[in-house]
Design goal:
The chain has 100 residues and is of the alpha+beta class. It is built from two helices and four strands. It has helices at 2-16, 24-39, and strands spanning 49-60, 65-75, 80-90, 96-98.
Length: 100
């Protein structure tokens, strides 16, 4: 009986502690949200607003980050433009390294 209980506890812990891996549209959405937060981290009335429109990404498992290319719209008081930015985002979505 003790062995069965111990076995059930170990199985429950191993299933419950498994990390939640994002895939597909959820991963794309999280990358866009992370980049948007990074670019709009200092909001002010005079600072331009950045809107992330799209992302193309490739997971680099050997280095634990996502290699991303973002389509970004920048809006300021009197003008707006759309451009491309590249960045590396860590797998835990905590750090962003702008490349271009």
């Amino acid at each position: 009986m003790k062995k069965l209980f111990l076995f059930l506890v170990i199985i429950t812990l191993s299933v419950g502690c498994r990390s939640n891996v994002l895939k597909g549209d959820a991963l794309k959405s999280k990358l866009m949200e992370t980049m948007s937060d990074y670019m709009n981290k200092n909001p002010s009335d005079t600072a331009p607003k950045f809107i992330v429109k799209d992302v193309v990404f490739f997971p680099r498992k050997d280095k634990n980050f996502y290699d991303c290319t973002f389509t970004v719209e920048m809006q300021s008081k009197d003008k707006d433009t759309t451009g491309v930015m590249t960045a590396e985002i860590t797998n835990d979505f905590k750090k962003v390294f702008r490349i271009q």
